[in-house]
Amino acid sequence: MKSVYSVVKKPLFTEKGSALKESENKILVEVSRDANKLEIKQAIQDIFKVKVDKVATVTTHGKWKRYGKFVGKRSDRKKAIITLKKGEKLDFIEGA
């Protein structure tokens, strides 16, 4: 069994994510690429002590980038959009 801290990597702070949080009570987090929805749900509930209603995942493939004459590839990522149950609230940054 995986550790809950190896499933959830970090929260994502974007304009779209803050709009989702205010309007629909959803949060964005970056997760491990091999984690499934049930593991993500359990990890969020254990770490942050909130009730999760639904989990949606998005896998983004890394882009090929040029740095001068060198060509490199950014790493693939997996994001989770987590819908919290009514009445639940989660603030990563308190008082900001």
Spell out the key features of this protein:
96 residues; alpha+beta; 4-stranded antiparallel beta sheet; globular
Distance between the termini: 36 Å
Instruction: Give me the Rg, rounded.
Output: 15 Å
**Could you report the average pLDDT, rounded to the nearest whole number?**
91
Q: What is the count of structural domains?
A: 1
**Topology, number of strands:** 6
* CATH homologous superfamily heading: RRM (RNA recognition motif) domain
Secondary structure layout plus pairing:
Blueprint: H1 4-7, E1 8-11, H2 15-24, E2 26-31, H3 37-48, E3 52-60, E4 64-67, E5 70-73, E6 77-84
Antiparallel strand pairs: 1-2, 2-6, 3-6, 4-5
Describe this entry's structure for a reader:
- This protein has helices at about 5, 15-25, 35-50; strands spanning about 10, 25-30, 50-60, 65, 70-75, 75-85.
- By secondary structure, it is an alpha+beta fold.
What is the gist of this entry?
By secondary structure, the protein is an alpha+beta fold. The protein is built from 3 helices and 6 strands, in the order αβαβαββββ. It has one domain (4-84): Alpha-Beta Plaits (2-Layer Sandwich), CATH 3.30.70.
